[in-house]
From TrEMBL:
Organism: Paraburkholderia metrosideri
Highest taxon, organism lineage: Bacteria
UniProt domain FecR protein: residue ranges: 119-210
Taxon lineage: Bacteria, Pseudomonadati, Pseudomonadota, Betaproteobacteria, Burkholderiales
Protein name: FecR family protein
Domain annotation FecR N-terminal: ranges: 20-59
Pfam families xref list: DUF4880 (PF16220), FecR (PF04773)
Amino acid sequence: MSQCAVVIESDLNAAVLGTAIEWAVRLSSGAASEEERREFANWRAADLLHQRAWERVEQQLRTFEAVRERGGTVARKALSTPGSSRRKMIQGSFSALAVMGVVGYLVRCSGIADVLSADVTTDIGRRQLIMLADGSAMTLDAHSAVNIDFNAQVRSIRLLRGQLFVRVAPDAGRPLVVATRDGTATALGTAFCVNLSDEGSRVAVTHSKVGLRSVSGDALVVGAGTVAFMQSDHVRLLESQDADAEVTWVNGYITAVNRPLSEVVAALRPYLPGFVTLSPDAARLRVTGLFPLDDPDTTIRQIAQTLRVTVTYHTDYLIRIAAR
C-alpha cells in the first residue's frame, strides 16, 4: 500500500477509512469541541478497524509534513527546466496536444486577457498567503488570479481563475464580497473558500455565514460546515459535502471521501506544468484517501498503483489516465 495515497476497494474498509479522514479534518480544523474529541476517542476505541484506519491517516499526515519540508522537490524540478528545453518539450508534444483537442485547450485558456491584467496571480505549483489591507487573510491556490478593490465603501475580491480561502476581518460597514462570473459571496466576519471551475463556483463555509447571489438573482445563505454550488442562473446546496474537507488544500493536501477521480485530478492540475486528461470511465472511479498536492507526480503514480487505471506520459507536459 502506498505511503502517499490511501485507496481501499472494500466498501466496509472504505467507509471506515472515510470516517477516519473526516475525523482528521474536523480535529485539525481548530473548531472541534471537547464533546467532539470525546466522541472521536470513543469511535477509535470501539473497533480495531477504527484504530487501524486512524493510524493509516496519521501516517499520511506525517508524509505530507515531509513533502512540505523538502519543498515539493519533484514539482519544482519540473518547473525549473531550462527555457530552451521546455520549449523543445512543448514543441515535441504538439501532436499529442492535438489528441486532446483544440476545444479543451481553449476552455482552459479562456479569459486569459483578464488573468494577464490581474492584481495578484500565483504560479503553477505555488500557493500564496496574502494579508489584505483590512486585516483579512487570503490564501490563493496555485495557478489562480484575483483582482482586489478595497476602499472606504467596499471590500471586493474578484476571482478570475482558481480558488481562494479567506479569513475575513469583521467590518459591519463594509461586507467583504468575493465575485466570480457566476455571482457573489458576501460575508461580514467569516472564513470561506471559493473555487471557480468551468462548471461554476463552489463555495465552502467553515465559519459563520455567507450570502450567495447568482447573476440571475437567485439567493441562498450558507452556514458553517456547508458547501454550495453557484451558476449564473441558480444556487444550490451540496448536501453530502463537508466544508472542512474542501479547504485542506490550504495545508497542502486533498481530502477525498468516496469522491470521483475527476475531482482529485482537477485539484492536482494547478500543480502540474502540463495537461492531464481522463477517460470518462476513469473519471467516474471512486476514491477515498488523502493526496499531497506539492508532489503531484508521486500522487499520480500512487493512483496508478492503487486504482485500475493506466497512466501514459506522452511527454512531461501531457499525461493521460484511462481505466483498464
